[in-house]
Amino acid sequence: MDQERADEADKPPSLNLSRKQPIVSLEKSVQKEAFLVAQNIFDRLVDKVHVQVVTDISTCQQLFESFSPKDTVFSTWDFRFAWYNAYKYLPAFFVIYYNDKPVGLLPLWYENDKKQFRWFGSWWMEESSFWVFNQKYIPLLLALAPERTYLNAITIDSNLAKILKLEPDDPKYVLDLRNKTSAEEFLIKLKKKQRYNLKRDYRIIESLRPEIEINNYSSLEELFKLSINRFAEKGEHSDFIDDRRKEAFRQIIKQAKSYQVRIIKTKINHQTASLDFAFLYKDCYCAAKCGNNVKAFPGIGNFINLYQINEAIQMGFKKIDFLEISYGWKEKIFQSMPLYYFQKGLTKKELRE
Fold first, then answer.
1. SUPFAM superfamilies recorded for this chain (predicted)?
2. Domain ranges of the chain
3. Which of 338, 303, 344, 311 lies closest to 324, judged by CA?
């Protein structure tokens, strides 16, 4: 949250919430047990500070809209709600009240298969921040987080991260597009070999006269297949082997209101060479997912990267976001952005799963 909002501790959102509502209202015993740890902490809070755990999705939306800075696509309700519709995990929104006024929100859900609390919307949410109306409430938010909580991809000042004892997470990769008129201005700053490889692959694919098709949303199912096949070629598993992940991306299209979805299909000789899925929000072009037929069209990945950079520039975006985790190539050509994670009561093995 920006400094202006952080300074407005005396101006919390106006919400139709009663602190007299029950702290927890759950039906499954395993979920009740998960909340008990947090509830024990609540009993020790000072008189002026009270906490509520909200699980009703409509009330969660009201809280989310009131606290979210809405600075990235990941902090929009429609994007997160798409993931909720796919996974159906129980929401667990921790609300801090000071003098009966809501001043902080930790929007989580409970993943019953892992028995963990994570960001509402899953670990896929990036550039997450702590939603408080004064930074002094951040340590309280973290103290209130129940056991078996894992909060990843947090964006925060590095000095504050040290104070809060957050751990470094995988960085994300972005390209600043301001003052650029084409991808050529990006290429010129790369090392000679990197620049050569990118330009070579682009020229090879371009010589095959690729056909570009935009926003044929029915192509999404083909993207799933391309991704699964590509990972299988590398002896790995695509996240799209999980039907819930497929449904999340269907829902991202269906729920889009504050953001736009862009699907780019590249065809060569009537054969699909690549399918790319992007989110467009405010000044950011987010290159989110891809499925490439590398076996038939070597270099197609480099071609589409340069295509998307040029497209983002032409469309007037200030940056292009290639998301978290390098996968062995992003760190070679893009600027990294540090992210952090917070965990409570989890083993290193569980964090890797």
1. Acyl-CoA N-acyltransferases (Nat)
2. 3-166+342-352, 173-337
3. 338
**Confidence at residue 50, expressed as pLDDT on a 0 to 100 scale:** 85
Report phi then psi at 334, rounded to 5: -120, 160
**The domain 173-337 is classified under which CATH number: 3.40.630.30, 3.30.420.10, 3.40.630.10, 3.90.950.20?**
3.40.630.30
CA 64 to chain centre: 15
Burial 235-262 (b: 16+ CB within 10 A, else e): eeebbbeeeebbbbbbbbeebbeebebb
Contact 278, 264 (CB under 8 A): yes
Report the half-sphere exposure of 86 (CA within 13 A, side-chain side): 24
Whole-prediction pTM: 0.85
Greater confidence (43 vs 310) lies with: 310
Q: Which residue has the tokens 């949410």?
A: 125
Mean pLDDT of 223-249: 95
**Mean pLDDT, rounded, for 82-110:** 95
Q: Is the pLDDT of residue 17 over 80?
A: no
